[in-house]
Amino acid sequence: KQWYQRRVRGAPAAQRSLIDHGGPLPNVNSSGVYKPGHDAQMNQPSKNAIRNQKKRENKQDDEKWERGVTQKQAAPVTSGVDEKEKKIRNLKKKLFQVTKLKEQQKEGKELEKNQLEKIKTEGVLLAELKALELS
Fold it and tell me: What pTM was computed for the model?
């Protein structure tokens, strides 16, 4: 037992277990030091190393894609016709909502304050719609 202790006292932990068990241990390099990601027999990276590599590659792909998209994006086309059509659609939508509210009011449902205000704006909405359609 004394001989064993003298021989093991200064050795690294992995080397001590090598002496204890008498055989080669996995993930131990030539100097007897345990290396978690080092597999001397297969010489392949660990699962975490592979996962991290994939993350890095995906991140690079995402950055390339974003750079490509931002570079290829042209200035949005805003012509007067598109904006005019948008306003017309918006006004028609509001008028449709007003007609729905009027129907609900006829059925006897109590409307809230903001709904009553929306009904009052019907004349203004119609005037704006006519002006936009004429121009």
Answer: 0.41
